[in-house]
Amino acid sequence: LAVSGLPTGRFTFEGFLSVNKKSRREHLEEVKDEKRTMIFYEAPHRLKKTLALFCELLGENHRIAICKELTKKHETALHFTLGEAVAYYEANEPKGEFVLVLEGKSAEDMNRAKQEKWQEMPLPKHMKIYEDKGLSRKEAMKAVAKDRGVSKREIYAKLLEDE
Question: How far is it, in rounded angstroms, from Cα 102 to Cα 129?
Answer without folding.
Answer: 36
